[in-house]
């Protein structure tokens, strides 16, 4: 079987879907074609792929394979290079109906890895977790870089410097890593989330949880989330959360927001009034900016200063840690690939498999999942 690794062409995308570590495993049984320069932005040179057993080719060579491994969905020109019935694996955005329809029309058998269910068997394929972990780490690095003061408390002959106060909004995979990273830098941390189990996780990392009590059974029920993801909370709970967060934000030096609701715009958690109440020189890093932002003042792909507060709207922070982001992503992809390749190394797609069923967005010209 021929497995292709094209270069990513979307603006700002630095990752690559397979690293030499993974290519070596695949090349033992298959022909692997890597597009020239595909790994350069992730610190992987073509020679490393060749040493791992791949051949280097053109975009047409890589896209023309039986199985194509990608980070982001191919564009129209790239789809045109693919074979009818080719298997495509990547972060294909299952919520983008137009893109799914286009992939179906190209006759692709496409798997969107963001839709991997949150079950134990699928943990090693969970690209959202592997990339969110990196984004959470990098968010703190970006914030520290933008912030004009120290993160740790310092006692020097020239006087004492206070530790930075960091507020984390949304404590899933990215938020937990952001807490751990800010803690290592010596910050004092508070955090908020809707899901009840998060309180204990936050406290175990040495941060303070901002408790917004559930006043009704409905609030408690919605807060549990579904399938490991949050649901949109009732307006009254959101109002009470906003009031508490407003007070905590006034004291914060850095706010990192990561709150997402799958398939919906990101919830607004830091209003313009709250930004106005923050200290001059404070920093907000809005990881949800691509989904509309947790702060309405954040702007995609820009760092803006509003009411004296720097607001970073970098959409995909994992791309700024391209080498490790690619390494983890490629391992996720390899584990997924094992589900569609049988012991004789042939492609076999078991439509009843829970993971394949959840991720298969189109096949045989049909859209299977919106
Ligand atoms: P996510 O990226 O979808 O959302 C980020 C966080 O924002 C979540 O914690 C969510 O609860 C929170 N959020 C949503 N609305 C909010 C609001 N109004 N205020 C504050 N916070 C809000 O979430 P994620 O990082 O992908 O993961 C969520 C959970 O799933 C984590 O606890 C993670 O450990 C778990 N998980 C489980 C598995 C598994 O069991 N296989 C795999 C991956 C993740």
Automatic annotation (TrEMBL):
Its EC number is 7.1.1.1. The keyword Aminoacyl-tRNA synthetase does not apply. It comes from the Bacteria. It is an enzyme of class 7 (translocase). It catalyses: NAD(+) + NADPH + H(+)(in) = NADH + NADP(+) + H(+)(out). Residues 144-313 form the Alanine dehydrogenase/pyridine nucleotide transhydrogenase NAD(H)-binding domain. The keyword Translocase applies. The transhydrogenation between NADH and NADP is coupled to respiration and ATP hydrolysis and functions as a proton pump across the membrane. PANTHER family: NAD(P) TRANSHYDROGENASE, PROTON-TRANSLOCATING NAD(P)(+) TRANSHYDROGENASE. This is proton-translocating NAD(P)(+) transhydrogenase. It comes from Massilia agrisoli.
């Amino acid at each position: 079987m021929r497995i292709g690794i094209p270069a990513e062409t979307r603006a700002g995308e630095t990752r690559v879907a397979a690293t030499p570590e993974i290519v070596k495993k695949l090349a033992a049984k298959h022909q692997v074609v890597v597009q020239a320069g595909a790994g350069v932005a992730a610190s992987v040179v073509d020679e490393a792929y060749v040493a791992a057993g791949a051949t280097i080719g053109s975009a047409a060579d890589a896209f023309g394979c039986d199985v194509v491994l990608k980070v982001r969905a191919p564009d129209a020109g790239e789809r045109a290079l693919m074979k009818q019935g080719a298997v495509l694996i990547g972060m294909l955005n299952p919520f983008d109906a137009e893109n799914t329809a286009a992939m179906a029309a190209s006759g692709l058998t496409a798997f969107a890895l963001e839709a991997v269910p949150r079950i134990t068997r699928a943990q090693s394929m969970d690209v959202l977790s592997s990339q969110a972990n990196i984004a959470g780490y990098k968010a703190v690095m970006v914030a520290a870089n933008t912030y004009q003061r120290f993160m740790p408390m310092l006692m020097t002959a020239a006087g004492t410097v206070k530790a930075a106060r960091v507020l984390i909004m949304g404590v899933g995979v990215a938020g937990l890593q952001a807490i751990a990273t800010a803690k290592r830098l010596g910050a004092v941390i508070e955090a908020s989330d809707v899901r009840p189990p998060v309180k204990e996780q936050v406290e175990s990392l040495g941060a303070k949880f901002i408790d917004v009590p559930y006043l009704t059974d409905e609030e408690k029920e919605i807060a549990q989330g579904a399938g490991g993801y949050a649901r949109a909370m009732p307006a009254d709970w959101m109002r009470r959360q906003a009031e508490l967060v407003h007070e905590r934000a006034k004291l914060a030096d850095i706010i990192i927001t990561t709150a997402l609701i799958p398939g919906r715009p990101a919830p607004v958690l830091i209003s313009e009034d709250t930004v106005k109440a923050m200290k001059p020189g404070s920093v907000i890093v809005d990881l949800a900016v691509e989904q509309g932002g947790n702060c309405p003042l954040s702007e995609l792909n820009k760092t803006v200063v509003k009411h004296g507060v720097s607001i970073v709207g970098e959409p995909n922070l994992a791309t700024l840690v391209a080498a490790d982001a690619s390494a983890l992503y490629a391992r996720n992809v390899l584990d997924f690939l094992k589900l569609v390749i049988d012991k004789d190394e042939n492609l076999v797609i078991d439509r009843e498999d829970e993971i394949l069923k959840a991720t298969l967005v189109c096949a045989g010209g049909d859209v299977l999942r919106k």
